[in-house]
Task: inverse folding
């Protein structure tokens, strides 16, 4: 079948890498692997990160203006369903529901969230639009239990709610290598807000490590790079900045790393955790909603335990190659068992079939 695909936060062909883009691309790959033809319906970006009501109105008007052409295109190309990836109160799907209704085709959401507390305040218009999208959806694939709670409360009687575990596009994984004696690795866009908060926690934990026992490579770039570099400045040459990496460069960074260190402040789940574990790396992270759902069983300290608990985990892994090896193999097995393409294809196929998409 021909499926229309849309990602209102960031289109899958956007040049700037991110977990959101990676998951959108993974979804397209899975849908194609299931035998469907996937058409990128629109590159309209609806995101408003500041809570600007005027901007929300402007983008909504832009979205409305595209509807007639999208409906005509859908009829001409024979779209059989509309699939939207990641609609929420800062980047709602403003076009998929109306187009699907006009074409009489199933409307399917993946990683949609409801946020009732945002129905008043600076994002009220957008939060209302995100709720409307959820209300219109024939099926919603949720990625985490945290998202499922709100979706279940607001679900309409005939709506299908299906758990889709976050996944990589690999069919299988190679055997995990022996634990590397290389540097620790942190991977994250350098943005203000949650990403910068994770970098701040990293710096606080590093300050508690013995000076002669570690090195860190940092992959990522963005508007908060100066603040991140300032946080790492006290550690001098022990921290190396790699900048933005392409897929091959990032794979090489995983291959030489001893472990992944990323606290995960307010991550939806964290695509980087899947990539690192697939490469056989143990992970040092905090026990956070969403994040815990993609991590292998392990000792992940609570946020209340602070940087000291993270530093203790880092020291334990850095001091003991055998512990790293065991943790890395367990991490890779967890991904192989739960987060690869064949499992995702099977879940998507069953879920789409439940709304008549076969």
Result:
């Amino acid at each position: 079948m021909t499926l229309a695909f849309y990602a209102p936060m960031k289109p899958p062909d956007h040049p700037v890498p991110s977990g959101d883009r990676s998951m959108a691309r993974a979804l397209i790959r899975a849908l194609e692997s299931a035998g469907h033809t996937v058409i990128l319906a629109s590159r309209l970006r609806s995101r408003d990160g500041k809570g600007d009501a005027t901007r929300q109105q402007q983008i909504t008007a832009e979205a409305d203006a595209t509807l007639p052409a999208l409906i005509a295109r859908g009829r001409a190309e024979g779209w059989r369903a509309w699939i939207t990836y990641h609609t929420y109160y800062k980047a709602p799907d403003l076009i998929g529901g109306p187009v699907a209704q006009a074409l009489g085709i199933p409307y399917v959401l993946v990683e949609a969230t409801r946020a009732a507390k945002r129905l008043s305040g600076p994002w009220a218009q957008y939060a209302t639009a995100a709720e409307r999208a959820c209300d219109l959806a024939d099926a919603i694939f949720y990625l985490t239990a945290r998202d499922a709670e709100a979706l279940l409360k607001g679900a309409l009687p005939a709506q299908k709610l299906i758990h889709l575990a976050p996944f990589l596009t690999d069919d299988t994984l190679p055997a995990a290598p022996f634990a590397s004696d290389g540097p620790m690795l942190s991977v994250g866009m350098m943005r203000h807000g949650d990403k910068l908060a994770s970098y701040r926690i990293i710096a606080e934990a590093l300050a508690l490590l013995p000076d002669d026992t570690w090195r860190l490579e940092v992959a990522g770039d963005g508007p908060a790079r100066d603040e991140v570099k300032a946080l790492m400045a006290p550690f001098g040459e022990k921290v190396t900045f790699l900048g933005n990496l392409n897929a091959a460069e990032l794979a090489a960074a995983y291959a030489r790393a001893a472990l992944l260190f990323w606290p995960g402040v307010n991550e939806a789940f964290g695509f980087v955790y899947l990539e690192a574990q697939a490469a056989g790396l143990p992970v040092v992270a905090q026990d956070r909603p969403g994040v815990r759902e993609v991590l292998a069983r392990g000792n992940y300290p609570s946020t209340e335990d602070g940087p000291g608990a993270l530093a203790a985990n880092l020291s334990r892994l850095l001091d003991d190659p055998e512990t790293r090896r065991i943790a890395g193999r367990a991490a890779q097995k967890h991904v192989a068992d739960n987060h690869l393409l064949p499992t995702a294809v099977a879940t998507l196929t069953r879920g789409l079939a439940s709304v008549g998409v076969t």
Summary: The two ends are 7 Å apart (CA to CA).
